[in-house]
Design goal:
about 425 residues; alpha+beta; Nucleotidyltransferase, domain 5; Helix Hairpins; 3 domains; 18 helices; about 10% strand
């Protein structure tokens, strides 16, 4: 399929012929609802079908579809469904394994088309299923294809990582809150409270009262329980600063025993999650080693294993894209504008796509601007010569990154700084 949206829309419509049965399925946790129409949107089923989210229900759907095909003398089928949560996943895979053409419909599309038939804002599962069938017949869908095993493994690992990163951030915020209440001067000693010396301090001397009467040598001795290189000039300096700040601390000392128990549990859980994330990163590197195109992406200096894994897990195999614009649309980074008559609205991001992929493409671009000489030079040219704001430049380079990634994979090449810079100078 070509990358131009209008051309792609026509191609999707042309795929649905007069011999097609169009089925729309409204997904739910336990009971799904299906409706069927022909290519013109004429309802072919006497009533909707309700079936359970288990193998008996799937087989019931299959028998219902086969009966409609025979009754209406049709020989092709296309099934559309909303990717609601995770409820659609098992049915979609079961149908694909049966050789059925499965497509997905954006929930926003269903919401905006639900009044087409009855001019009513009413909502029900049978109506939603019929709306899905209608929008599929008009080509408002996107293909569902099962990714190769390694890409599915990568997606599962990255989803797991996102969960544990979220928990880690939550724990870190709670520990910072603890320090703000009990030892507010702590941040002036340790800018990064997660460093080994800081962790050792929180385990051995969590409150200012624990440091009262301690000498620098005694503090360093306490650190040695948790770290090998506790002394040295840096250790003596930090110990002195810690004792000095503790002596004039205004931290709360009420219920200190219970507060220290809370901190102990928080530190223990934080270290456990850090270990989990380290193991996940090792697993990511292992899986990336089994995906040939990953080495091509990694040839772009600054695009580390996490960014590479996040892009491939969200976008899948980049060989399926004809142009970088498709990758941007997949992430919801395509532009949307609102104009009418003389009014020209602000151009914004559509944000109709994978939010996680959108986040990591943006973060990867920021990292490349900071670490990759080519991207840094392009950014400086955008800001100083083209008078863009820094944010505008970042989003322009994000589009360039998408085109570079898709181009490298399609042509089987590694990143070539000279080629990128040559393209840039010609455009300038």
């Amino acid at each position: 399929m070509k990358f131009k949206q209008s051309v792609g829309q026509n191609q999707r419509i042309e795929r649905i012929t007069t011999s097609h049965l169009v089925v729309g399925i409204d997904m739910a946790k336990e009971v799904h609802v299906a409706q069927a129409t022909n290519f013109r949107g004429i309802v072919l089923s006497s009533r909707h079908l309700s079936f359970k989210n288990k193998i008996e229900g799937f087989e019931k759907l299959q028998r219902w579809i086969e009966g409609l095909l025979r009754k209406n003398r049709l020989n092709s089928i296309i099934i559309g469904m909303e990717p609601t949560g995770h409820y659609w996943y098992n049915l979609a895979n079961w149908l694909v394994d049966k050789g059925v053409h499965v497509v997905l419909v954006n929930p926003a599309t269903t919401k905006r088309n639900k009044e087409n038939r009855d001019n009513s804002p009413s909502k029900s599962d049978p109506k939603d299923a019929l709306v899905i069938a209608d929008v599929v017949s008009r080509g408002f869908y996107y293909e569902y294809t099962r990714q190769a095993t390694n890409f599915q493994r990568l997606r599962t690992i990255m989803s797991d990582r996102e969960f544990w990163v979220t928990n880690s951030v939550r724990l870190q915020n709670r520990i910072i809150r603890w320090l703000d209440i009990r030892f507010p001067e702590y941040a002036s000693v340790f800018k990064d409270w997660t460093c080994p010396r800081s962790i050792a301090t929180l385990k051995e001397f969590p409150s200012p009262l624990d440091l009262k009467g301690q000498s620098t040598a005694e503090v360093i001795t306490g650190w040695r329980k948790y770290m090998k290189r506790a002394g040295g000039s840096t250790g003596i300096q930090k110990a002195a600063e810690l004792i000095s700040q503790a002596s004039q601390s205004v931290g709360d000392t009420t219920a200190l025993k219970e507060a220290k128990q809370d901190l102990e549990r928080l530190i223990e859980e934080f270290e456990r999650i850090v270990g989990i994330l380290e193991q996940i990163e090792k697993d990511i590197v292992t899986v990336l080693g089994e995906i040939p195109i990953a080495s091509q992406l990694r040839s772009l200096k600054g695009l580390g294993p996490i960014y590479t894994a996040a892009i491939l897990s969200g976008a899948g195999d980049l060989k399926q894209y004809a142009h970088g614009r498709q990758l941007l649309r997949k992430a919801g980074l395509n532009l949307a504008e609102s104009t009418s008559g003389k009014r020209k609205g602000e151009i914004v991001l559509s944000k109709r796509g994978d939010a996680t992929l959108r986040k990591y493409l943006y973060l990867a671009t920021l990292t490349l601007v900071g670490t990759n000489p080519i991207f840094r030079q392009l950014h400086e040219n955008n800001v100083h010569n083209k008078h863009m704001s820094k944010q505008q430049s970042v989003f322009k380079l994000l589009g360039k990154l998408a085109r570079i990634l898709v181009g490298m994979v399609r042509h089987g090449e590694s990143f070539t700084p000279e080629k990128t810079f040559q393209t840039y100078t010609q455009a300038a």
